[in-house]
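seq as requested:
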Amino acid sequence: MDIVVTADKGGVGKSLMAAHIAGRLDQLGQPVTLVDLDHRLASSRQLGQAAPHVPLVKVGSSDILADGLCIWDTPAHPDREMRLGMVGGHVIIVTDTDMEGLLAARDLYRTLASVGAQARVLVNNLAPTSGVGPIDDLFSSFEVPCFRTAVRRYACYGRARTEGRLVCDYPYAKADEAWSDIKNVCDELLEMIDA
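struct tokens:
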């Protein structure tokens, strides 16, 4: 089963989310592979030390698990060919909370939906004290499905990115709250796959 993590705007945390989703699914005992298509290899660097038993695959390799979940971390602004390749899997469109990011996510969703892809928007970098009401309202008016869980912005994500770890590796309360968001996203993702 393919899970594509993508965005039409850079810097929204797409690779960070791909690595954390792969790490959480692995923690749940799911056979998972992470395929890093982004030329910066951000998710590979992130996950390399954090979950060394999650295979990291380069494009063209035959190491992809046949019966497991395959997380595809795409480059920002995927081209037409890559977008058409997303049709068979479940697509997570990552966005941040600024209007440019939200509009880019909406437009990418519409493009993917027009070719039959199953996509849902994941809001990342939400201020920890914010509610998701306005975002839900915005996407509702755009008729774009989104995850019920928004991933809140915590400093531990920056530390995890720098150290090549996952936020669950840190023994403090804010890291637990950050990991709770990832757990909830993965629960929703598994519901989406099973539907």
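The two ends are 13 Å apart (CA to CA).
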